[in-house]
Write a structure and sequence with these properties.
Elements lengths: L3 E5 L10 E6 L12 E6 L2 E7 L14 H10 L4 E10 L9 E2 L3 E4 L27 H13 L4 E2 L3 E4 L8 H9 L4 E3 L5 H7 L3 E11 L12 H25 L1
Parallel strand pairs: 1-4, 1-5, 5-11, 6-8, 7-9, 9-10
Antiparallel strand pairs: 2-3, 3-4, 5-10, 6-11
Helix pairs in contact: 2-5
The structure holds hypoxanthine.
Length: 248
Amino acid sequence: MSGIAIIGGSGLTQLEGLDIVRREVVHTPYGEPSGPVTHGVLHGHEVIFLPRHGYGHTIPPHRVNYRANLWALSSLGVERVVAVNSVGGISEAMAPGTVAIPDQIIDYTWGRAHTFYDGDGAPVTHVEFTYPYCEPLRDALIAAGRAAAIPLVERGTYAATQGPRLETAAEIERLARDGCDMVGMTGMPETALARELNLCYACCAVVVNWAAGRGPGDGRIPMTEIERWLAEGMARVRRLLEEFFSAS
Ligand code: HPA
């Protein structure tokens, strides 16, 4: 199963269990990716790993070079991408610790380099994006999550916000009215850029907090708890990935 990459989010800057073969610096027409890509072997399968925020978690969501990251992976022959993103939970099923495999996304980001079809001479192109995630890859992740017996929500709408600040309670109310189930800062433009490159891309969203106004008490986000749920959630993602690769 060659040609698969994992883009790690917060809490997944290193992929435990990955036997690292080599690191490769890739230069792209869009600038530098978040770091060198890591070629390795995970549960017997060749995998490329790239931490979205850099190996030292130094790049905030609005400064990630999403185009360079996706272009670099595609140029290395990657065809499938599993993106791991931490999110806040909006709908009731999205309690901290849950892993969700979203099937829809709404883009609330702005000012990010969001397309490869840009610049002088670029063709006017409108990619089809009705179903933003790769369904066969979603199905495989869902099957792996079930096999791993982790708390799993099998669909939902991801709200991609600009950050880096967290949202107000009113903003989350609005996202809920829009039909969003979870909120994160890195789903876009990554998902759309993957489609522009014809990559099969799906997301493992790890809920690390109740979104603003949704949690107990006055609804403030307890920042200290995020770390705990991040560690717990990423451990669950690692179990899911183990099942994913052992089934492949
Ligand atoms: N909002 C936006 N992004 C996030 C959140 C949140 O509550 N939690 C983790 N990433």
